[in-house]
């Protein structure tokens, strides 16, 4: 058990990112976890195996990723807050189950600790799954809120928040964390433990699937009547629009006078912050927009940029080719040039490389 300080306030302590995510989930009320080993997220199921029994929860190592996400579906259908975690290839194997959770309007949290790809790729950390998480997590055109921490403390806070969002919207929520955040240790403060929430399917199904009120407790994503499937999709579309109004998260860093704006998340944003300090030391006015919610994407933050001052944007990611480019270009309607800076396959992107990329883009724009 993680010790509490005076009056129930959690003491500041030193935790690894993966273990911090697992503890945050338990403190948020998660009482069921099912998963399967894959690098670099293995500390999450290992931690859950130790901690879940102490809080009256259940840990299961499934025989596969597919089995694990189906177990999460079953737990969620019974009203239990549930979570699964994996990395790249494992998330692909969970895709049908995540789609089925969304189709049945069941809350769950999915953690993806990213590694290199495609295919089995490298076991080293990377940021290769932006497109997968935000555009095509599974079949059927569904969406999930995608939260991307850049510190261990933020990994705790966003995991804790993810459970509230999952219950509020009756939909899976993803925490997309690159493997460096999962592996590093930083001082953190844990939130207070919540009483485990149990939720009911009654009423939700009545409103969207069966206006007659008959059989509203049947949990299913297989709606054979076309009009009910359409009602589900109408409801989903309305929910996604609500997310864009209420659930966008982003950090703006030194934007007031910035002429060159880096767009980065996760570990890449940490390196970008250092690069910005170096660039400003050379008289180059750089700033950053850090998406915290990758979906919904912080479109308005980019739209608000002063286009008479900002000379270009730099999409900075630990993947090649970079994956946020289309979202950035759409947000600024191609009115501001967008350059890119990336590394791939588990190679960490340094602040020196980002600063050099900004200077090269400046020279290119000057031609």
Automatic annotation (TrEMBL):
Enumerate the SUPFAM superfamilies for this protein: Thiamin diphosphate-binding fold (THDP-binding) (SSF52518), TK C-terminal domain-like (SSF52922)
**What Gene3D superfamilies does the annotation carry?**
3.40.50.920, 3.40.50.970
A Pfam family it matches? PFOR_II
Q: Where is the Pyruvate flavodoxin/ferredoxin oxidoreductase pyrimidine binding domain?
A: 23-195
Record InterPro entries: 2-oxoacid_oxidoreductase (IPR052368), PFOR_II (IPR033412), Pyrv_Fd/Flavodoxin_OxRdtase_N (IPR002880), THDP-binding (IPR029061), Transketo_C/PFOR_II (IPR009014)
Limits of the Pyruvate:ferredoxin oxidoreductase core domain: 258-354
- The UniProt transmembrane annotation reads none
- An example molecular function term from Gene Ontology annotations: oxidoreductase activity
Query: Which key words are in the record?
Result: Oxidoreductase
Q: What is this protein called?
A: 2-oxoglutarate ferredoxin oxidoreductase subunit alpha
Species this protein is from: Aminivibrio pyruvatiphilus
